[in-house]
Amino acid sequence: METIQIYHTNDVHSHLKRWPRIKHFISEKRLEHQKSGDCFFLFDIGDFIDRWHPLADGTKGQGNVKLLNDCHYTAITIGNNEGVNFSFDDLNQLYNQAEFDVIVANLYKDTRHPHWVSPFKIYQSNEGTRIGIIGVTAYFTLLYELLGWELTEPIAELKKWLPLVKKQSDVIIVLSHLGFTIDEQIALECPEIDVILGGHTHHKLPEGKLVGGTLLAGAGKHGNFVGQVTISLDMEKKIQNKEARLHEVMSLPAVPDEKLQANELYHQGKKKLNQMIISLSEPFHHDHLTETPLAKILCSALREWCEADCAFINAGLLLGPLSGKVTKFDLLKVCPHPINPCKIVLTGQELTQLLLETRQSDWAIQEVKGLGFRGTIMGTSVYDQILFREEQIFIKGTELESEKNYSIAIPDMFTFGHFFTDLLKNKEKTYYLPEFLRDVLSWKLQNSPSYTRFFNP
Fold first, then answer.
1. Exposure winner among 5, 25, 285, 397, fewest CB in 10 A?
2. Which residues on adjacent β-strands are paired with residue 218?
3. Predicted local distance difference test score (pLDDT) of residue 448
């Protein structure tokens, strides 16, 4: 019997305080399996990079790539945090120093895969077993197109390559940043796949899940777990057994100076972001439940950036105050979200419905998770060029007309299906990429004469 050991991570999202322990664990396991003669592979399934962390933001992801190199990953696929949170040039150069393969079958530029991407790779074990690896990433086609990429439908792309991979492989493994439900669909439609290592929906499968003959695996999120899949084959290269398990990272032995190592990664990024944006003569205070001047500035900046009639944001987007000399690092701390500006055209009746929902009594205190949001609660609603007077709503000083069209600028998190679902589902949306809200805030602070009283030249 031959044994192949596969370790995998997914959706680490730059939560690097556990990284020293993960790296040590993987290094120890690699040596252990090599001594026993087992073949060893290590894969990441995307969203390893998240620009809330100063290392990721300050190095444009290059610092995270170095961590993967240091841990000797075999290959990765990308997630949406790598794919749509960098400019075209930054993503195109992100993996220039990678010492691992980047496998993404459904990412193209001008009908070809980028130079840094392979649709699949065939690896060979010590015993000559051929392991075919295909990677696919989440179908955020519009956002990729706005950045200059072409993204194909992942299941169709997978089926296109599977016959070729099958001819060259004894074992087929998919690196899927598509989510658990789609992984289940793939397993049913493509029974020739032996293992799907999953991510995107942060699903945690302690013992994996068999769907037909395909084993699904997922290691949760934020580096809480490292996944392991063990495959046993007979002399004919036929799989006799496959099983999955998870290793809880904080239950692993501690690593000397692990907090110091994690802090060093943070400070490396902070140093990169120590570039002054503006010097404030008056501080901007912070309060999730109050319409503060800083929140008003961000909201007006969003409207102006999108050239919209009006705008609204949630005050929970701002996580702290600003004062004195403001650097890029300060703006990252205050607004760490990978959230982009978005503009939508609504009728007055539709706009009224949306705005009334943002004024509900429980709106401000509800917890928000995912959607790029890196805060805790929604926070009070903040408006620009929108005025409420008793039962009336005014847009740019004029009473709202139910049949008239209005453009409203909002954070893109509100367009991804969890809020205003029926209202915005079929509306055309204009996304502004690659700038995040903190970039728009920086632009406003530096360039708007109307706020010169707040800061020194």
1. 397
2. 198
3. 66
Residue 219 bridge partners (DSSP) = 204
Class of domain 275-456 as given by CATH: alpha beta
Compute the distance between CA of residue 403 and CA of residue 408 in angstroms, rounded to an integer.
Answer: 15
Q: Round to whole Å and give the CA distance between 363 and 229.
A: 43
CB 197 within 8 A of CB 229: yes
Q: What is the 3 state secondary structure string of 334-346?
A: HCCCCCCEEEEEE
pLDDT at 429 over 90: yes
User: What is the distance between the alpha carbons of residues 44 and 5, in angstroms, rounded to a whole number?
Assistant: 14
pLDDT digits (tens, 9 = 90+) for 352-401: 999 999 999 999 999 998 889 999 999 999 999 999 998 899 999 999 99
User: Is the model's pLDDT at 425 over the cut of 90?
Assistant: no
**Which pairs with CB-CB distance under 8 Å and at least 24 residues apart come from 203-206?**
203/179, 204/246, 205/244, 205/246, 206/245, 206/246
Residue with tokens 């980047």: 102
Q: Report domain extents, the chain.
A: 2-268, 275-456
SS3 289: coil
Is pTM, for the whole model, over 0.90? yes
If you average pLDDT over residues 412-427, what whole number do you get?
89
Q: What does the DSSP assignment read for 165-199?
A: HHHH-SEEEEEEES-HHHHHHHHHH-TT--EEEE-
- Mean pLDDT across the chain: 95
